[in-house]
Amino acid sequence: MRLIFALFKFYRMFNKRVKIRELLAQEPTGQEVTVMGWVRSFRNNQFIALNDGSTNNNIQVVAELGKFDDTLLKRITLSASLKVKGTIVPSLGKGQKMDLNAATIEVLGDSDAEKYPIQLRNRPTLEYLREVAHFRFRTNTFGSIFRIRHSLAFAIHKFFNDKGFVYLHTPIITASDAEGAGEMFRVTTLPFDEEKNKTPRNEDGTIDFKEDFFGRPTNLTVSGQLEGELGATALGDIYTFGPTFRAENSNTTRHLAEFWMIEPEMAFYDLEDNMNLAEEFIKYIIQYAITNNRDDLEFLAQRLAEEEKQLPQDKRSDMGLIEKLEFVLNNNFERITYTEAIDILRESNHNKKKKFQYPITGWGMDLQSEHERYLVEKHFKKPVILSNYPREIKAFYMRQNEDGKTVAAMDILAPGIGEIVGGSQREERLEKLEARMKEMHIPADELWWYLDTRKFGSVPHAGFGLGFERMVQFVTGMTNIRDVIAFPRTPKSAEF
What we know:
The chain is an alpha+beta fold. The protein contains 15 helices and 16 strands. The strands form 3 sheets. An 8-stranded mixed β-sheet has the order 6-10-11-16-15-14-13-12, with helices on both faces.
């Protein structure tokens, strides 16, 4: 029985798939393993570079000459998928510490190398890879990006869980516009082909939404904040992490129509508490990526350095990617008010020499990305937290300061991107909130449930939103936001 059990155990170990990342972390001691992956290259009809997506590093499979049928060997082409069983041995070649001497090779999926859309020997551009986004994960660049994205997402949940926050799923379909910008995607089952099916109308000609699925106008959410506040005023500390949508007709490298947001809301927090948590949070998830994705970060750092060699000296980064991330970890974020920021920008040589596309016109203007990046990259040379913005350029829910001109808002600005976090202490005083909503023509009857939380046990509370893709951009060094989400949704583009 012992012999049978031992043989069964050996059979299971030999046939169980081992990930290449785990395998490369071991020492080659003659272990029998099974690996599966995609062919990156096949040299001399003998050496197969196999990759399974767990790391950018390949395992070299050695197919002993004369051992395998020519028909099989001809099927080992770029991006074909294989199942290989064999023995791990110390490598005799340079560049790898181990080889997998193949005992059996099975082709799981054939690939026509001539028609395969990504030819690794000719480094494809990022623009081209967006056109074949269903395959771009197989490149080293995107393998690194999406392993880091995974780690950041996991770190977010771990950070909040360890602090006792409750993960709240807020609705994707909503009847409220949390930001008041009106750039929302409508959700409807009403007929849109008016030639064949007339849209139901009221007597005054407006659409009769009583005939719609929800019986009222509804949209895809731009934020889970308002619903998150409901949770915070009962559960204490909550966070949301989900997709949000913005029907903004923008084709810049900073905007997506569908993106992910992390939005914590905390009861009994003021603006200072909010800033402290946001800074701690950003540093935590960056540290997690550095600890768990060092190889991927080093690869992307090298890639970024090579890219920047093509740029003029004044356009290159002062620090490498990993150096920049460690600098953020090791320095306190600079904290200044909006008023102080306007003074700095107004007196800057950049403004006096008219180098800003949007000139500094004075207090009350909405800062643009170029202004935010100047503060971070040129003036302070580290992340900046701006606070106490003019009330006229901020949302209705932000707590009004005693000066009557500003609100208790805060934004965190990061190098290379600009605003990465936006938040505020929320207005908990019913009369102040109702007056502000009236000023901004926000119908109180549609947000009756939101106002109710200010009537029954209202408390000071605060929260912020972190754009996940912008955070991934910052950590990976990618300059286009379309390259840090699996399938970007942008104006006139909803492929895959």
